[in-house]
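Action item from last week, closing it out:
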Amino acid sequence: MKYGLRWAWAAGLLAATMALARAETPGAGEFEVSASNLLVVLRESPGANKQDETLAPFGRISARSADGHEFEFEASWFQYLGDMHLRLVFDGERRVQSASPEDLQRLRLSPEEALERAVDNLRRRYGEPVAQPWTGGLMQVHGNAPELDSSYFLDRAFWQAQLRDSPAGIVAAVPDRQGLVFARADDASAVASLRFSAAALFAGNDAARISSGLYLFKDGRWSVFQPPQASLD
């Protein structure tokens, strides 16, 4: 990663942590801190291009509050794949609260087990993912909560089912929180359409964008199909 990208990544992370402190830190008793209330969300890691799906913890994060006070916290955030990281969170009526490593320890869940439980909860609470024709030979995935549509990228059972009709693999894009689009890997025209559409959606949504890369699902796992834009600079 070049120095400019390192600074961009650090600035993006600082902005994210400050947003977390403002929007995701609840009052006492506001959230149900239980395994049945776990969810998972995907967020952008600017400049990153991680090549495998292993969950790499962020560790302790330093941030500065609006009044200038410096603080550190540790959340169950994990670098995931390409320029994406995931956050394990507890669901609330209007917002979410990041789970801490201590929360997972108390619930006796490893990060991988917590992720699996969070995806199960997503399907139970907000519906199983549905794939519908979109445009240019593409399919769009959604559930019953648009802001969580991107989280279905982590629903491995859903993608395994898609492989029955596309044994060559699935190429998917997660340009923003409400966008999860895919094409058959053996459909060159649809993959070309995906490249264009994903780039346009990513560029047009600064506030809620997630990834500028494309990802291949094959043999039961995700890999980077087209590197994120920033990693090519």
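Closing note: The CA atoms of residues 214 and 226 lie 5 Å apart.
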